[in-house]
Amino acid sequence: MRLEKRTHSSSAALVLAPLGAVLFTLLISALLVLWAGAPVGRTYGLLLQGGFGSVFAWSETLTRAIPLMLTGLAAAVAFKARLFNIGAEGQLYMGALAAVAVGGLHGGTGFDLPPALLFVLMMLAAALAGALLLLGPALMKARLGVDEVVTTLLLNFIVLLLVSLMLDGPMKDPTAMGWPQSVVLLGDLELAKLIPQTRVHTGLLWACALAVGLWALMKYTVLGFDIRAVGANARAAAFAGVPVTRTVVLVALLSGGLAGLAGAIEVAGRTSYLTLDMSPGYGYSGIVIAMLAGLHPLGVMLGSVFVAGVLVGADSMSRVVGVPTFIADVIVAASLISVLVATLLTQYRVRWQ
Amino acid sequence: MSEFLDILANPAFWVAVLRIATPLILGTLGVLLCERAGVLNLGIEGIMVAGAFTGWLAVYLGAPLWLGVAVAALTGAALGLLHAFLTVGLALSQHVSGLGITLLATALSYYGYRVSFPKVSTPPTITPFAAMDWLGLPVLAQQTPLTLLALLLVPVIAYVLYKTPVGLAVRMVGENPQAAEGQGVSVAAVRTGAIVAGSALMGVAGSFLTLSAFNAFFFNMVNGRGWICVALVVFASWRPGKALLGALLFAFFDALQLRLQQMGDAVLPYQLYLMLPYVLSIVALVLVARKASYPQALMKPYRKGER
Lengths: 353, 307
Known about the structure:
The complex is a heterodimer. By secondary structure, chain A is mainly α. Chain A has helices at 11-35, 40-52, 55-80, 88-104, 115-144, 148-168, 203-220, 222-232, 234-239, 244-271, 282-292, 297-321, 326-347, and strands at residues 2-5, 348-351. Chain A has a two-stranded antiparallel ribbon. In chain A, helix 3 runs parallel beside helix 7 (203-220), helix 3 (55-80) runs antiparallel to helix 10 and helix 11 (282-292) packs across helix 12. Chain B is mainly α. Chain B contains 12 helices and no strands. The termini of chain B are far apart. The relative contact order of chain B is 0.20. The interface between A and B is large, with 46 and 46 residues. Chain A: It is a multi-pass membrane protein.
């Protein structure tokens, strides 16, 4: 089998390919639904309804989409520069840890700042914590040639243990009846609700603004150009005078910062304290979303709503027909693979010989 | 200090070291085979989960233990074939394809487990491999046959890689696919074969967890062991002998960490001990980074006729 570059790929194909791939995934996954002994039509209907069928469903989906959008952007910007940041999960927890440290630990005895200033400090601390966590692997990659995939992955495990250590010790909430749970954020620092009586909060606006901002940065700034050049061909970029190491470092700060913010916004918008199970793998799902979106920041907005809807819909569907919620993870992972293949086929023709 | 020596003098400690090392040896050999042919396989974490699940399920449904191992190997091989199709056939990013396979294999295994056992609270168990008392050797006699298999595979794979035409073809394809193609070697066929064989080993590595180390399947039971194998293979400079050494060294620290933690009067929080294996992996990566001799074509897709 051989691949032949297409001379021309229609823009309709570029849009239809991912949609077709997702449909194909749903068809294949139907076999798994049948295996669980549930009616396919009703199961998918319930999944759709649970994710997108009502104001409540939408509010839950959008709530879930907020951290996914931010980790998706984190992965998109890093992957664009070929910095394979698989550590968004750890960066998210570091951001949440920093947010709780700034916004919860002073307990009235420490610094007495106006809430608005404290809020800004909290978000900056979170972004910085996430950024610094990725800086190490990025520098090790640039200077020593250590593969960043493995180092960022291993750091995820280390960070989770660090969070566990903090929640057992210095940052443990003494009033939490022994649960490993952090102190609670100051009430003033919590994000307002977008729709009353639901959980969706103004973090959604922050995430969307960051997506648009990142899109503009990629499209209209020198840094954006450098990032794309380094991603396309680092050696050629260096030859053309692009500061490769500096660009990789900036990308690491940006990517880690976005993932760190995801943690802080999740704490400030949804939980108000940090637990060890705060993220059901938002960092890893962010990678899938970025790939589904073809690393496009605006596509990440759509992709995160799609993935969040599938996850939320699967929860409510599972309660009714008893198909395990893991079907959502299967659909998301299989979508990733089939979208990659479909996108490739818009650019290449397969010749069998 | 004397406590430390007591630990080292206890045969049970060395039994634990070898047990912890077994899945790492098998997994590292699997990664090594793929990478020697020039393909990174980040699917290992998910392939280990899938091997642990299908091997265990086969035995639970009545298959003999060794058939369970074969099922796990076949599961790994099938997932390897998918990885080969994506990375060799379609030349997609090896990073992304591998991560996709890890996510897919993990999700499918967990889904399969939940569909098969919808309402169990305690995980169903099987009778796992027994220790090889008949062997009569200290430490090794207390291991299960899969450990022996892992140890035997090290010289076998080293022999195949360095002394046979197949091994030469694998190494050539990993170093210089253009030259290999010029010699009449099919790059696609050799890479596909190496990935399938390596992934089968990863499946067996996973099955060790459910068929030897434990007797049940748990969520998160692989818990990063696959990623450790990816780090170990760099530490081993892609050599089977050093891979064995690395896995044993790593298992030594892991077992030590467990003992220190169990000694009760914990000087440090237990999380610090648990961090040790991951920190060591990163340290090892940094230490060998400068002189790491990556297979030259690693992660570079090869398209016939393209340069």
